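Lab notebook, bench 4. Still working through the backlog of constructs that have no structural model yet. Next entry is a single chain of 270 residues. Request: give me the structure tokens for it.
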Amino acid sequence: MRKYLLFLTFLALVVGILSCEKTTEPFKPHRSLIYVDSNNITGNEDGSIFHPYSSIQKGIDEAEPGATVAVFAGTYDEPQIRLKGELTVRGAGADRTVIFNGLTGEDVTNVVVTSFEIQSGLQCTGNSDLIINHNLFTGNAGGIIVSGTSRATIRQNTFRVQGMVPPLLCSDESYSVVQANIFEQGGMPVIMELSAMGDFGGGGDSNGNNDFSGQFPQEVLRNATPHELMAENNIWRFNTVAEIDRYDIVDDDENPGFGMVDFEPFILKD
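Model written out:
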């Protein structure tokens, strides 16, 4: 009897082992959290924290709707990154995570791009909806372009753009909420053109707090649209109404086809 019981126990163990071998599948990372690290040169990539993808584009392509693509510190010298909808792309900090060739999103919605140094700019085109925050824009290829019927929320970024390009260009029938950004440098002013609309402060979507006191060869803000632009509670290069109106802003005073910029009240520059 004892031998029979031992045999049954042994048989159960064998069946259990075979069953586990049959049902065990290779590990797959959760597609809602994808890791990327440019320092992973092993060739072993699955998007997990142990085997991250080596390119941001691969992480975006593999991510599911609602996912976060978490990018480790490093430099990412890959072709212009194509965004897709319903995801967050998050760097390890604008001082440690550099994208060389920029990003573009066409007809993408519910996208967040945060915590990168972005060279070569970010384009938001078609009918897109993006949140762009905590980034540093540098280089000679511009900062942010918002066009089509896109909507962009642009908060707490720093623009240090050189060359004959605007740090921010809003065009077509787009709408931009611009708040708490620092415009340190630009070869051209921030430009609103065609039928673009926006709120730079005081319009209900933005409380202002943008710092326009940086280095610009001409004006800082040009409203080349027929619409009034709200831009209250911001810091300018000058501290008087007359000087701000004359030197920092181009609007209906300079061109009767342009809409006015409402910049009062404003924050005094230190």
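Notes after review: The chain has two domains: 29-103, 121-270. Helices lie at 2-23, 56-62, 241-248. Flag for follow-up if needed.
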